[in-house]
Amino acid sequence: MRSPGVSDSSEEAQPLILVVEDEALIRETVTMALSDEGYEVVAVEDGRQALDIIRDAHVSDDNEISAIDLIILDLMLPYVNGLDLCRLMRQDGVTTPILMLSAKGTETDIVVGLEIGADDYLAKPFGMRELIARCRSLLRRASRQPQLPEQLVLQFQEIALYPQECRVTVREDAVNLSPKEFTLLELFMNNPRRVFSRDQLLEKVWGIDFMGDSKTVDVHIRWLREKLELDPSNPQYIITVRGFGYRLG
Ligand code: CA
User: Fold this and answer.
1) Left (φ > 0), alpha (ψ -120 to 50) or beta: where does 93 sit?
2) I need a surface site. Which of 33, 98, 214, 235 has the fewest CB within 10 A?
3) Ligand 1 is a single-atom ion; what residues have CB below 5 A from it?
4) CA of 76 to the centre of ligand 1 (A)
């Protein structure tokens, strides 16, 4: 078992399984059984932690847990339940196979779980051998499917930026940005809360040879605000830091 953020590049890459289960005994038993089979396991106890890990892994290529291969997801969880979690992940475009666990083995639960994007379903109580067999089968199925390049998305509050598609949405609506506005926003979204001076922005977005002055930056910031902010005169996203420059958030 390893915890998020701990890196050991010397070990051979084994499939990484995220276990989301609030009952400590089940969580530990499952973690141990999977570890014994040679899988890497990250275990969390509620839906919020799970969502953080999944979103981190999904948006960041260089994250330690950038490639979760399988998610074992309990249905009844604190904060965000398994069904909502599953729905949110699929909405975010996360295609990682999901094996749902639940004490409620009724047909309705199974159908709902599968319809909102779970790949398999196991009713509690279950045997570890069955769990392992189902994990193996899901991992096998996933590895046979052609690997589509993962959709990369930068997210800041209600802004989503898709670097590969040069596309931005705010509050789910598409926003038309000029190439410079896009590059500017991408820089901010890659460095949330970091303050950039006008000169730094000029150099990074317009290039070192650009002959214009820092007014160019102010103008583009104004245009970005007009396109992104609900109230451009009272910006919530791109903030002026008096005497220094601008930052996102
Ligand atoms: Ca539970």
Assistant:
1) left
2) 214
3) 22, 74, 76
4) 4
Pick the CATH number of 154-248 from 2.140.10.10, 3.40.190.10, 1.10.10.10, 1.20.82.10: 1.10.10.10
Q: Which fold has domain 16-143?
A: Rossmann fold (3.40.50)
Phi-psi region at 174: left, alpha or beta (left = phi > 0; alpha = psi -120 to 50): beta
Per-residue pLDDT of 80-123, as tens digits, reads: 889 899 988 888 788 899 999 987 667 787 788 888 889 999 98
Confidence category of residue 9, pLDDT binned at 50, 70, 90: very low
- CA 188 to ligand 1 center in whole angstroms: 39
pLDDT of residue 39: 95
Taking the centre of ligand 1 as the mean of its atom positions, its distance from the CA of residue 154, in whole angstroms, is 31
Give me ligand 1 centre to Cα 86, in Å.
15
Cα 140 from Cα 195, distance rounded (Å): 46
